[in-house]
Design a protein that fits this description.
- Two copies of one chain form a homodimer.
- By secondary structure, chain A is α/β, with parallel strands linked by helices.
- The first copy, chain A, has three domains: 170 residues, Molybdenum Cofactor Biosythetic Enzyme, Chain A (3-Layer(aba) Sandwich); 78 residues, Alpha-Beta Plaits, CATH 3.30.70; 154 residues, Alpha-Beta Complex (Maf protein), CATH 3.90.950.20.
- In chain A, 42% of the residues lie in helices and 25% in strands.
- Chain A is built from 16 helices and 17 strands.
- In chain A, the strands form four sheets. Chain A has a six-stranded mixed β-sheet, sandwiched between helices. The first copy, chain A, has a five-stranded mixed β-sheet with strand order 14-13-15-16-17, with helices on both faces. The first copy, chain A, has a four-stranded antiparallel β-sheet with strand order 10-11-9-12.
- Chain A is elongated and about 85 Å long.
- The interface between A and B is large, with 87 and 85 residues.
- β14 of chain A pairs antiparallel with β14 of chain B.
Chain lengths: 414, 414
């Protein structure tokens, strides 16, 4: 079963609004076994709407349209759909009552403009909008469905969840779809691809693999589609098992929305261990990632953003000689920072970072993009040198991910 | 001049990835006077790519394609474009050299898979990708242009800025478009709209206003389109002048990509003053924002992420009695944290934050979303209480923006 999503609204095409609706709808449709063939964003323009809906109906069984249902002049979706289906608008009394009720609740005067929101094409099934005045509209013809929804995310989501998804499941016999994700850290996409090439080439045709790379991490997603759920479960588990054996050392998690900071949080919580941070070049970014996880206060004691030399010396007890002999961007400084914060905060683990994120070289002799990461554990301290290129934001993001990757490996050892 | 944007990648159609590229590209194209006719997201599928490119070339003068240029098997954009243009792939030696250089820098083995990234259709102009191995590709025929770019945002943006936008401006005669942005902090969108309503209603028809709100900040963008640049400059300056008079107290900057952390950086650099941070509920996010600005080491001494009570007491010298009497989420604790970090780091300014970002209530009696922000200046310390709602990420983002907004006002006074 194929769907096409059409979003209507000039504000998307001038880059003013980020279209988050389509992603959400696509995800929900995929979950119930409907593939999305295409997502199309078009202008509030009659001709363009007519053309897009016609093409979408040709390509797909299900067309979901969002946007252009507001009460103002530039919202022409409803009129245009009536034209497309050679239909006329009629006042739906149930919708009038619903809209009146909404206005009574917020104590707003109910006007003719608002009443017009209850005008719908005569052949559609109007869908009640819990969070707004524009009803959804369901057009069904010859096992082809067109649904029109408002563009306001909370209204669209309410209508999808309460009406559209259940109606789709009742209308169509849908296949089973299963997704499994593996999260890896520490190997680039091309090296990873080379390492799992044979396995990938031998995947059954009903299983697809996607690489989703981002700043030192790659998500591998397997998607299987078939007639029975059991068969898919079995096949995808078998392939996952083989894959895990090929790259055990770089796998960090198996949940779609999991991040390494969440995995570290789970590990530290389980082991009742603690973490502190001494960040120079990452400038608080690792602390920000760690504390983005709800419950971080259970294991994250705190951190020092040692951006200046004086803070490294005064707060982290890095000796002036260490810095003079090796510069601040060095293994020695990174390890001294780690030692300093561990002695101060008495945590099981510590991450320390020092480097030059750019754009200009600092007073040291190190290239822009050079970062030293030190890790202290209950038993040892070590550091590694990395080169993360440019620009600044990439250096900070990759250094942060690499630091968390190193930390996770150490937590697993202890 | 019309453009169409095509994004290629199954991950968008299954709803795993939010397509932020198209919004960015649409915004940049609009800025140089190119309207976007349609944005289309399609699968990594040969037939589908061929069809989409053909239709886009029919609808628009300029087609910008992103995605599907990675080194792996599911990336088929390049091969399919070669087929579309009845062309063959040839090895581009300049690109080979560039990719080898990239690999040499990060000390990674250069493989056959990487060399293949330098294979490009013979008739295209390859565009050097500063941040990755996949070159961009520019196909020009009969005043119709097709451009293919990698989907990784930093790579796409680099190629657009350095190559594609300038080449489009050189190739086509584009109308004059002028944008001016005002960045405001501290007033919600609807209140702001009410305050400037009369002015907005009296704007000339060739000037459009856009509201771009985000976590406590609203960007107001004026766009004027016309035949001569001088006329636009004059008209837009006149309107800006009126607008500034209406809301002087909330305006933070006038540069499109300016952020409050950049404005603060400029102010502190100019005044040769310094800043330190004591963050609890914002967890390093303010430090991350401050250090995202190149040159932050000139004024940012460092910070303490005082996530636990013990760090507040030991490192920031907050008394146990203050916490016992008022809880950690209180004005008293926030101000004590500010005092503590200022005495320790000897900076002119200090921000301290303490609150509950949620999702669950802590041991204090404060509602989730409550945040106290304290500011210390060379002459005073004060704090304010805020309620930032939920979810967690919104509380952290709004608290960080509000803290920087308060800080800026104090810097301007001193």
């Amino acid at each position: 079963m194929q769907a096409e999503i059409i979003t209507i609204g000039d504000e998307i095409l001038i880059g003013q609004i980020l279209d988050t609706n389509s992603k959400w709808i696509a995800e929900e449709l995929n979950k119930i076994g409907v593939s999305v063939y295409q997502i199309t964003s078009i202008q509030d323009d009659r001709q363009h709407i007519l053309k897009a809906v016609e093409e979408a109906q040709f390509n797909a069984d299900i067309v979901i349209i969002t946007g252009g249902l507001g009460p103002t002049k530039d919202d022409i979706t409803k009129l245009t759909l009536a034209e497309y289906f050679k239909d006329t608008l009629v006042l739906n009394e149930e919708m009038v009552a619903h809209i009146e009720q909404l206005f009574a609740k917020i104590n707003y005067p109910f006007t003719e403009v608002n009443r017009n929101q209850a005008l719908v094409p005569s052949t559609c099934i109007p869908l009640k909008n819990e969070f707004g005045t524009a009803p959804g509209m369901w057009f069904g013809q010859y096992n082809k469905v067109v649904v029109s929804l408002p563009g306001v995310p909370v209204e669209m989501k309410g209508l999808m969840t309460q009406s559209v998804l259940p109606k789709l499941q009742a209308t169509f016999k849908l296949p089973f779809i299963l997704h499994k994700t593996i999260i890896t850290y520490g190997m680039g996409e091309s090296m990873l691809a080379a390492k799992i090439e044979d396995w990938e080439n031998n995947l059954p045709t009903f299983i697809k693999l996607a690489y989703l790379p981002s700043f030192g991490t790659v998500r591998l997603r397997l998607s299987a589609k078939g007639a029975t759920n059991e068969m898919l479960e079995k096949a995808i588990s078998r392939e996952m098992e083989k894959l895990v054996k090929l790259i055990p050392e770089i796998i960090v998690g198996f949940e779609e929305n999991e991040t390494i900071e969440m995995v570290i949080g789970q590990l530290l919580t389980k082991k009742k261990q603690t973490l502190a941070l001494a960040e120079s070049c990452t400038g608080g970014n690792i602390a920000k990632m760690i504390t983005s996880v709800a419950g971080a206060s259970n294991y994250f004691v705190g951190g020092i953003v040692a951006y200046s030399k004086i803070v490294k010396i005064m707060e982290l007890n890095v000796s002036e000689k260490t810095i003079a002999d090796n510069t601040v961007v060095s293994a020695q400084t990174a390890e001294a920072m780690a030692k300093g914060i561990q002695q101060k905060y008495h945590t099981d683990y510590v991450i320390a970072t020092t480097g030059n994120a750019g754009p200009t070289a600092d007073e040291t002799d190190k290239t822009v993009g050079t970062v030293f990461i030190a890790i202290a554990t209950p038993t040892t301290i070590f550091s590694e040198e990395f080169f993360f290129g440019k620009p600044r934001e990439k250096v900070i993001a990759r250094a942060s991910n690499k630091a968390l990757e190193l930390l996770r490996k150490e937590i697993l050892k202890n």
